[in-house]
Protein backbone atom coordinates (compact mmCIF):
# COMPACT_ATOMS: atom_id res chain seq x y z
CA UNK A 1 0.00 0.00 0.00
CA UNK A 2 1.38 3.38 -1.01
CA UNK A 3 1.08 6.10 1.63
CA UNK A 4 1.62 9.79 0.95
CA UNK A 5 2.48 12.28 3.70
CA UNK A 6 3.20 16.01 3.44
CA UNK A 7 6.81 16.50 2.40
CA UNK A 8 6.60 20.25 3.09
CA UNK A 9 5.50 21.11 6.62
CA UNK A 10 6.02 24.51 8.21
CA UNK A 11 4.19 25.48 11.41
CA UNK A 12 5.54 28.71 12.85
CA UNK A 13 4.78 32.42 13.32
CA UNK A 14 5.07 34.55 10.15
CA UNK A 15 5.32 31.51 7.87
CA UNK A 16 3.18 33.39 5.33
CA UNK A 17 6.12 35.71 4.60
CA UNK A 18 8.12 32.72 3.36
CA UNK A 19 5.64 31.01 1.05
CA UNK A 20 7.72 31.83 -2.04
CA UNK A 21 10.87 30.44 -0.46
CA UNK A 22 9.12 27.21 0.56
CA UNK A 23 7.65 26.69 -2.93
CA UNK A 24 10.99 27.41 -4.60
CA UNK A 25 12.70 24.85 -2.35
CA UNK A 26 10.16 22.25 -3.51
CA UNK A 27 10.78 23.16 -7.17
CA UNK A 28 7.26 24.53 -7.64
CA UNK A 29 7.92 27.65 -9.70
CA UNK A 30 4.54 27.86 -11.51
CA UNK A 31 1.37 27.68 -9.45
CA UNK A 32 -2.41 28.00 -9.60
CA UNK A 33 -3.35 30.18 -6.64
CA UNK A 34 -6.74 29.93 -4.90
CA UNK A 35 -8.02 32.19 -2.12
CA UNK A 36 -10.93 31.73 0.24
CA UNK A 37 -13.47 34.54 0.31
CA UNK A 38 -12.04 37.71 1.87
CA UNK A 39 -8.55 36.24 2.21
CA UNK A 40 -6.90 37.98 -0.74
CA UNK A 41 -7.83 41.40 0.64
CA UNK A 42 -6.23 40.56 3.97
CA UNK A 43 -2.95 38.99 2.86
CA UNK A 44 -2.40 39.81 -0.81
CA UNK A 45 0.53 42.22 -0.35
CA UNK A 46 2.47 39.79 1.87
CA UNK A 47 1.83 36.90 -0.51
CA UNK A 48 2.71 38.86 -3.66
CA UNK A 49 6.01 40.07 -2.21
CA UNK A 50 6.91 36.55 -1.05
CA UNK A 51 6.08 34.94 -4.40
CA UNK A 52 7.75 37.60 -6.52
CA UNK A 53 10.93 37.65 -4.45
CA UNK A 54 11.31 33.90 -5.07
CA UNK A 55 10.30 34.19 -8.75
CA UNK A 56 7.17 32.09 -8.36
CA UNK A 57 4.93 32.49 -11.41
CA UNK A 58 1.15 32.58 -10.77
CA UNK A 59 -0.35 31.15 -13.97
CA UNK A 60 -3.94 31.00 -12.68
CA UNK A 61 -5.79 32.70 -9.84
CA UNK A 62 -9.27 32.31 -8.38
CA UNK A 63 -11.35 33.15 -5.34
CA UNK A 64 -13.36 30.17 -4.07
CA UNK A 65 -16.94 31.24 -3.41
CA UNK A 66 -18.81 27.99 -4.03
CA UNK A 67 -17.87 24.41 -3.16
CA UNK A 68 -20.21 22.69 -5.59
CA UNK A 69 -18.47 19.87 -7.41
CA UNK A 70 -19.50 21.34 -10.79
CA UNK A 71 -17.46 24.46 -9.98
CA UNK A 72 -14.50 22.26 -9.04
CA UNK A 73 -14.62 20.68 -12.49
CA UNK A 74 -14.75 24.13 -14.14
CA UNK A 75 -11.72 25.31 -12.18
CA UNK A 76 -9.77 22.14 -12.94
CA UNK A 77 -10.18 22.57 -16.70
CA UNK A 78 -9.31 26.28 -16.47
CA UNK A 79 -5.83 25.67 -15.02
CA UNK A 80 -3.06 25.99 -17.64
CA UNK A 81 -0.90 22.96 -18.35
CA UNK A 82 2.22 24.76 -17.14
CA UNK A 83 0.95 24.85 -13.53
CA UNK A 84 3.08 22.64 -11.31
CA UNK A 85 1.04 22.91 -8.10
CA UNK A 86 -2.22 24.07 -6.60
CA UNK A 87 -1.88 26.51 -3.68
CA UNK A 88 -4.91 27.00 -1.41
CA UNK A 89 -4.97 29.90 1.06
CA UNK A 90 -8.03 30.22 3.28
CA UNK A 91 -10.51 28.26 5.33
CA UNK A 92 -11.85 24.75 4.93
CA UNK A 93 -13.98 25.45 1.88
CA UNK A 94 -11.03 26.71 -0.20
CA UNK A 95 -8.73 23.90 0.92
CA UNK A 96 -11.32 21.16 0.26
CA UNK A 97 -12.01 22.69 -3.15
CA UNK A 98 -8.33 22.63 -4.06
CA UNK A 99 -7.66 19.14 -2.74
CA UNK A 100 -10.26 17.82 -5.16
CA UNK A 101 -8.77 19.84 -8.04
CA UNK A 102 -5.43 18.27 -7.17
CA UNK A 103 -7.04 14.84 -7.17
CA UNK A 104 -8.54 15.41 -10.63
CA UNK A 105 -5.48 17.07 -12.17
CA UNK A 106 -2.79 14.87 -10.55
CA UNK A 107 -1.02 17.96 -9.24
CA UNK A 108 0.37 18.48 -5.75
CA UNK A 109 -1.63 20.77 -3.48
CA UNK A 110 -0.16 23.09 -0.87
CA UNK A 111 -2.57 23.85 1.99
CA UNK A 112 -2.20 27.19 3.78
CA UNK A 113 -5.05 27.42 6.29
CA UNK A 114 -6.03 30.75 7.83
CA UNK A 115 -8.02 28.95 10.53
CA UNK A 116 -7.77 25.47 12.07
CA UNK A 117 -11.39 24.67 12.87
CA UNK A 118 -10.91 20.98 11.98
CA UNK A 119 -8.34 18.58 10.50
CA UNK A 120 -9.55 19.10 6.91
CA UNK A 121 -6.58 21.26 5.93
CA UNK A 122 -4.36 18.17 6.15
CA UNK A 123 -6.74 15.27 5.48
CA UNK A 124 -7.29 13.11 2.37
CA UNK A 125 -11.01 13.98 2.35
CA UNK A 126 -12.93 16.87 0.73
CA UNK A 127 -16.35 18.07 1.83
CA UNK A 128 -18.16 19.30 -1.30
CA UNK A 129 -21.69 19.87 -2.50
CA UNK A 130 -22.87 17.12 -4.84
CA UNK A 131 -26.34 17.73 -6.30
CA UNK A 132 -26.92 20.25 -3.53
CA UNK A 133 -25.97 17.91 -0.69
CA UNK A 134 -22.75 17.94 1.30
CA UNK A 135 -20.67 14.81 0.72
CA UNK A 136 -17.30 13.69 2.02
CA UNK A 137 -15.22 12.56 -0.95
CA UNK A 138 -11.93 10.68 -0.98
CA UNK A 139 -9.23 12.90 -2.37
CA UNK A 140 -5.51 13.55 -1.89
CA UNK A 141 -3.64 14.52 1.24
CA UNK A 142 -1.78 17.82 0.74
CA UNK A 143 1.82 17.58 -0.42
CA UNK A 144 2.58 20.62 1.68
CA UNK A 145 1.05 22.29 4.75
CA UNK A 146 2.06 25.79 5.83
CA UNK A 147 0.49 27.13 9.05
CA UNK A 148 1.26 30.67 10.14
CA UNK A 149 0.48 30.50 13.86
CA UNK A 150 0.43 34.31 14.10
CA UNK A 151 -2.51 34.34 11.67
CA UNK A 152 -4.21 31.48 13.51
CA UNK A 153 -3.83 33.40 16.79
CA UNK A 154 -5.61 36.41 15.30
CA UNK A 155 -8.48 34.39 13.82
CA UNK A 156 -11.79 34.36 15.76
CA UNK A 157 -11.33 32.17 18.83
CA UNK A 158 -14.28 29.90 18.04
CA UNK A 159 -12.37 28.51 15.04
CA UNK A 160 -9.51 27.32 17.25
CA UNK A 161 -11.95 25.91 19.80
CA UNK A 162 -13.68 24.07 16.98
CA UNK A 163 -10.33 22.56 16.00
CA UNK A 164 -9.80 21.33 19.56
CA UNK A 165 -13.28 19.80 19.58
CA UNK A 166 -12.49 17.99 16.33
CA UNK A 167 -9.14 16.74 17.61
CA UNK A 168 -10.28 15.23 20.92
CA UNK A 169 -12.80 13.17 18.97
CA UNK A 170 -9.90 10.97 17.87
CA UNK A 171 -10.28 9.20 21.22
CA UNK A 172 -13.91 8.21 20.72
CA UNK A 173 -13.38 7.58 16.99
CA UNK A 174 -10.66 5.02 17.68
CA UNK A 175 -12.83 3.35 20.32
CA UNK A 176 -15.70 3.13 17.81
CA UNK A 177 -13.32 1.59 15.27
CA UNK A 178 -12.38 -1.11 17.77
CA UNK A 179 -16.08 -1.68 18.53
CA UNK A 180 -16.62 -2.15 14.79
CA UNK A 181 -13.90 -4.80 14.79
CA UNK A 182 -15.64 -6.65 17.62
CA UNK A 183 -19.04 -6.33 15.96
CA UNK A 184 -18.22 -7.10 12.33
CA UNK A 185 -14.51 -7.87 12.07
CA UNK A 186 -13.71 -4.53 10.39
CA UNK A 187 -9.94 -4.26 9.93
CA UNK A 188 -8.16 -1.87 12.30
CA UNK A 189 -4.79 -0.42 11.29
CA UNK A 190 -2.80 -0.33 14.53
CA UNK A 191 -0.24 2.19 13.31
CA UNK A 192 -2.89 4.69 12.27
CA UNK A 193 -4.49 4.23 15.70
CA UNK A 194 -1.14 5.05 17.32
CA UNK A 195 -0.70 8.18 15.21
CA UNK A 196 -4.26 9.34 15.87
CA UNK A 197 -4.13 8.86 19.64
CA UNK A 198 -0.65 10.40 19.90
CA UNK A 199 -1.98 13.46 18.09
CA UNK A 200 -4.79 13.83 20.64
CA UNK A 201 -2.47 13.15 23.57
CA UNK A 202 -0.01 15.81 22.40
CA UNK A 203 -2.73 18.40 22.91
CA UNK A 204 -4.39 16.87 25.98
CA UNK A 205 -1.06 16.58 27.84
CA UNK A 206 0.29 20.00 26.81
CA UNK A 207 1.07 22.16 29.86
CA UNK A 208 -1.05 25.04 28.60
CA UNK A 209 -4.31 25.17 26.69
CA UNK A 210 -4.19 28.91 26.14
CA UNK A 211 -5.53 29.50 22.64
CA UNK A 212 -3.67 32.82 22.42
CA UNK A 213 -0.31 31.07 22.92
CA UNK A 214 1.46 30.45 19.59
CA UNK A 215 3.34 27.50 21.09
CA UNK A 216 0.10 25.72 21.94
CA UNK A 217 -1.36 26.67 18.54
CA UNK A 218 1.68 25.07 16.90
CA UNK A 219 1.12 21.85 18.85
CA UNK A 220 -2.58 21.86 17.96
CA UNK A 221 -1.84 22.49 14.28
CA UNK A 222 0.69 19.67 14.21
CA UNK A 223 -1.76 17.34 15.93
CA UNK A 224 -4.45 18.10 13.33
CA UNK A 225 -1.91 17.36 10.58
CA UNK A 226 -1.19 14.01 12.24
CA UNK A 227 -4.91 13.23 12.25
CA UNK A 228 -4.90 13.74 8.49
CA UNK A 229 -1.87 11.47 8.17
CA UNK A 230 -3.57 8.81 10.31
CA UNK A 231 -6.49 8.78 7.86
CA UNK A 232 -4.09 8.50 4.92
CA UNK A 233 -2.33 5.55 6.57
CA UNK A 234 -5.62 3.80 7.30
CA UNK A 235 -7.18 4.52 3.92
CA UNK A 236 -10.33 5.53 5.80
CA UNK A 237 -11.52 8.37 8.04
CA UNK A 238 -11.95 5.90 10.91
CA UNK A 239 -8.92 7.07 13.02
CA UNK A 240 -10.45 10.55 13.36
CA UNK A 241 -14.16 10.10 12.70
CA UNK A 242 -16.54 7.94 14.69
CA UNK A 243 -20.09 8.19 15.94
CA UNK A 244 -19.53 11.72 17.19
CA UNK A 245 -18.96 12.82 13.57
CA UNK A 246 -22.10 11.03 12.40
CA UNK A 247 -24.10 12.88 15.05
CA UNK A 248 -22.60 16.17 13.83
CA UNK A 249 -23.42 15.38 10.19
CA UNK A 250 -26.98 14.48 11.16
CA UNK A 251 -27.26 17.68 13.21
CA UNK A 252 -26.16 19.67 10.14
CA UNK A 253 -29.11 18.21 8.26
CA UNK A 254 -31.71 18.59 10.99
CA UNK A 255 -30.86 21.70 13.00
CA UNK A 256 -32.37 25.07 12.21
CA UNK A 257 -29.05 26.76 13.05
CA UNK A 258 -26.06 24.37 12.90
CA UNK A 259 -22.85 25.36 14.64
CA UNK A 260 -19.27 24.87 13.49
CA UNK A 261 -18.43 21.26 12.70
CA UNK A 262 -15.80 20.95 15.44
CA UNK A 263 -18.08 22.52 18.05
CA UNK A 264 -20.80 19.97 17.33
CA UNK A 265 -18.23 17.16 17.22
CA UNK A 266 -16.76 18.24 20.58
CA UNK A 267 -20.17 18.10 22.29
CA UNK A 268 -20.93 14.73 20.67
CA UNK A 269 -17.48 13.51 21.77
CA UNK A 270 -18.33 14.17 25.43
CA UNK A 271 -21.56 12.22 24.93
CA UNK A 272 -19.83 9.34 23.12
CA UNK A 273 -17.08 9.16 25.75
CA UNK A 274 -19.72 8.91 28.47
CA UNK A 275 -21.34 6.01 26.61
CA UNK A 276 -18.02 4.30 25.95
CA UNK A 277 -16.58 4.90 29.42
CA UNK A 278 -13.38 6.10 27.74
CA UNK A 279 -11.24 8.97 29.09
CA UNK A 280 -14.21 11.28 29.52
CA UNK A 281 -12.66 13.30 32.38
CA UNK A 282 -9.53 13.99 30.32
CA UNK A 283 -11.63 15.17 27.40
CA UNK A 284 -13.76 17.44 29.58
CA UNK A 285 -10.69 18.85 31.35
CA UNK A 286 -9.01 20.03 28.14
CA UNK A 287 -12.29 21.39 26.75
CA UNK A 288 -12.84 23.34 29.97
CA UNK A 289 -9.27 24.70 30.13
CA UNK A 290 -9.21 26.00 26.56
CA UNK A 291 -12.59 27.75 26.80
CA UNK A 292 -14.59 25.33 24.62
CA UNK A 293 -17.12 24.57 27.36
CA UNK A 294 -17.72 28.25 28.12
CA UNK A 295 -18.23 28.98 24.43
CA UNK A 296 -20.86 26.27 24.05
CA UNK A 297 -22.56 27.31 27.28
CA UNK A 298 -22.99 30.75 25.73
CA UNK A 299 -24.18 29.28 22.40
CA UNK A 300 -25.66 25.87 23.26
CA UNK A 301 -26.83 23.33 20.72
CA UNK A 302 -30.54 22.63 20.39
CA UNK A 303 -31.31 19.59 22.54
CA UNK A 304 -34.32 18.45 20.55
CA UNK A 305 -32.36 18.64 17.30
CA UNK A 306 -29.44 16.80 18.92
CA UNK A 307 -31.74 14.00 20.10
CA UNK A 308 -33.05 13.65 16.55
CA UNK A 309 -29.47 13.66 15.23
CA UNK A 310 -28.53 10.81 17.57
CA UNK A 311 -31.37 8.72 16.15
CA UNK A 312 -30.35 9.61 12.59
CA UNK A 313 -26.60 9.03 13.13
CA UNK A 314 -26.53 5.26 12.38
CA UNK A 315 -28.01 5.92 8.93
CA UNK A 316 -25.54 8.61 7.83
CA UNK A 317 -22.93 6.09 6.64
CA UNK A 318 -23.71 2.59 5.51
CA UNK A 319 -21.89 -0.23 7.33
CA UNK A 320 -20.19 2.21 9.74
CA UNK A 321 -20.60 0.71 13.21
CA UNK A 322 -20.28 3.06 16.20
CA UNK A 323 -21.52 3.30 19.76
CA UNK A 324 -24.64 5.02 18.38
CA UNK A 325 -25.47 1.94 16.31
CA UNK A 326 -26.70 0.31 19.53
CA UNK A 327 -30.32 1.16 20.35
CA UNK A 328 -29.81 0.96 24.10
CA UNK A 329 -26.85 3.34 23.86
CA UNK A 330 -28.96 5.85 21.92
CA UNK A 331 -31.55 5.63 24.69
CA UNK A 332 -28.79 6.17 27.26
CA UNK A 333 -27.57 9.17 25.25
CA UNK A 334 -31.02 10.75 25.37
CA UNK A 335 -31.09 10.20 29.12
CA UNK A 336 -27.67 11.83 29.51
CA UNK A 337 -28.82 14.90 27.59
CA UNK A 338 -31.73 15.23 30.00
CA UNK A 339 -29.88 14.52 33.25
CA UNK A 340 -26.10 14.96 32.94
CA UNK A 341 -25.30 18.35 34.55
CA UNK A 342 -22.72 19.36 31.93
CA UNK A 343 -24.55 18.09 28.85
CA UNK A 344 -27.74 19.84 30.03
CA UNK A 345 -25.82 23.12 29.74
CA UNK A 346 -24.33 22.32 26.32
CA UNK A 347 -27.60 21.30 24.68
CA UNK A 348 -30.63 23.31 25.74
Task: Give a summary of the structure in a few sentences.
This protein is of the alpha/beta class and 348 residues long.
Description:
By secondary structure, this protein is of the alpha/beta class. It folds into 2 domains: 146 residues, Rossmann fold (3-Layer(aba) Sandwich), CATH 3.40.50; 191 residues, Dehydroquinate synthase-like, alpha domain (Up-down Bundle), CATH 1.20.1090.10. The chain has 15 helices and 8 strands. A 6-stranded parallel sheet has the order 1-8-5-4-2-3, with helices on both faces. Strands 6-7 form a two-stranded antiparallel ribbon. Helix 10 packs antiparallel against helix 11 and helix 10 crosses helix 14. The longest helix has 28 residues. It is globular.
**Would you tell me which CATH topology of the largest domain applies?**
Dehydroquinate synthase-like, alpha domain
- Mean of residue pLDDT? 96
**Describe the biggest sheet?**
6 strands, parallel
Query: Strand percentage, roughly?
Result: 5-15%
Q: Tell me the number of helical segments per DSSP (H or I, 4 or more residues long).
A: 15
Overall tally of domains: 2
Order of helices and strands: EHEHEHEHEEEEHHHHHHHHHHH
How many β strands by DSSP?
Answer: 8
Low-confidence stretches: none
Reported CATH architecture of the largest domain: Up-down Bundle
Distance between the terminal alpha carbons, to the nearest Å? 46 Å
CATH superfamily of the largest domain: Dehydroquinate synthase-like - alpha domain
Quick one: CATH class of the largest domain?
Answer: Mainly Alpha
**Helix proportion range:** 40-55%
The backbone outline, from C-alpha atoms, is globular
Amino acid sequence: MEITVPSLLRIKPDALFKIGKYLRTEGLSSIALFFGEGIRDLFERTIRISLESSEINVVHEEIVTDNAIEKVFESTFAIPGKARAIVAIGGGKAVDYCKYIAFLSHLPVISIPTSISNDGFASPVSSLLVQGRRKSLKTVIPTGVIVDTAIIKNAPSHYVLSGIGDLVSNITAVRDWKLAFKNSGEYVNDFSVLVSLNAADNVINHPTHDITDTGFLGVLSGALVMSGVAMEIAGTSRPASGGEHLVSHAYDKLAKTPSLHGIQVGVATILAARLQGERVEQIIRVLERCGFIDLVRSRPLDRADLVRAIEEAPYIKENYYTIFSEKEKREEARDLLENDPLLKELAV
